[in-house]
Amino acid sequence: MNGKRIKWHIVVFLAPAVLVYTAIMIFPLFNTLRLALYSEVDQVRVFTGLDNFRTLFGDPRWSESFWNALGNNFWFFLIHMLVQNPIGILLAAILSHPRLRFAALYRSAIFVPTILSFVIIGFAWKLILSPIWGIAPDMLDAIGLKFLYAPWLGKEEYALTTLALVSVWQFVGIPMMLIYAALLSIPEEVLEAGEIDGITGAAAFWKIKLPLILPSIGIISILTFVGNFNAFDLIYAAQGALAGPDFSTDILGTFMYRTFFGFQLQLGDPHMGSAIAAAMFGIILIGVCLYLFGIQTRMRRYQF
Amino acid sequence: MNKARRNPFNVFASHAVLLTYTLIALFPVFVILINSFKTRKAIFREPLALPSSDSFSLIGYQTVMKQGDFFLYFQNSMIVTVASLFFVLLFGAMAAFALAEYRFKGNTLMGLYLALGIMIPIRIGTVAILDLMVSTGLVNTLWALILVYTAQGLPLAVFILSEFMRQVSDDLKNAGRIDGLSEYTIFFRLVLPLVRPAMATVAVFNMIPIWNDLWFPLILAPAEETKTLTLGSQVFIGQFVTDWNAVLSALSMAILPVMILYVIFSRQLIRGITSGAVK
Question: Which residue, B54, B81, B110, B143, is the most exposed by fewest CB within 10 angstroms?
């Protein structure tokens, strides 16, 4: 009909969302990537191309911290994948049993840590693990394992793993819920068909249910990846911006924060901060692309 | 037929695993709460005991009330969360309606553009966001936070809501058009009420991350009068680190509002997740 005329109502409907989203999210994102190509020399902003990245990856003053943060971040992610997701799947598998009593109660209780803020979680665990208060050593003592106790958050070799496990404890509810939803959507007939063929119990889980929930596991993995590589709050709340002891818990988020705002005697540097942000953007983009093109397209999906 | 899947040992083992994990999940919260009502001595002597008439004390809460402006922080968090949710839902629903309802050039492209932000965290752009807020004079105002959270929430909101709006019957909308209703009236009067459950899901998904965020309050609005509850408790605890009564009470007071929200909205939240809103 009159397709040539501008339909103003479409513009009105789209405008607020597009404007806010573009101005506050997309524009700053690209502006940050652009700022990464500049440096400040004598308080004047000059274009320096990829120098900041050369410094970040190559100059020992910077690269040591960067690779340390990146390595820590990968370890942080690995722990989530190896601990959080299997526990989440296990809990979901148990919860999804038909006619399990109190299922809703368990579900709500296990989800509680997920809704609490990192500040609460960080401090609560710091207090509980603290040698001063002594809850953790006393409890280990009660089961005769006191020799295992160490001030975990204060030791370089344990601190990062401890914080990763605290984060796992906090977020296990999310994979649990998503897998639980996926398991509930498997039709009863499929399971009954398996039962007739003699596949029950654990075998039914490994041979029938697990292949069917693989797409959900893929989504959880990418959500975990993105979440971990822009994590900041928990480390900051528990260990401060210096990510102690001796930067052993430093991840990209805390590294960027320190660089951007400065700490102790070092002044903040928005351009190096942008360069780190750009590196984070690159890593997240690679992860998301690997997932979208490498994993998701190859995964078989079943429609019921 | 369920015999094979249900034997008493399995039932017992299931409950044992779930109960253990429930205890692990709730234990830290429980320890913080009970100890916030105890005297300093009792906190250290018997950290796992419930407060008794001997050990009961509100000294921590008194310190928190005197030293920190927790009501102001709470009010700030409330304003930021409610306003952000309002804009996410209003703008998100409007854009979702445009994408779901009208065929126009660039519709798919617009959908993809808005969906970009689902996977890319807004924090990456922090340096430039701070620049922008400084140059517009919004630093240390609640508006800075509201705008950022609105932008952060929109992509997923548009995505989820447009899925739901596609399911609203065309006959209903066309009937409205024949009756001479404008497109705006159709949206606000006919479509919005029908997608209310989806709107509630989006609201619940957005509420918790906004309420709990530490990054943007710390960077965009760290002034005393704009601190949110999350940032306020962080700073307060940092200053009172050695006053265990105060720290435990501050933590409990930060836990309380979220727990109340959770009790009210947990069914909505769990239904939202399990209905496959995140596919």
Answer: B54
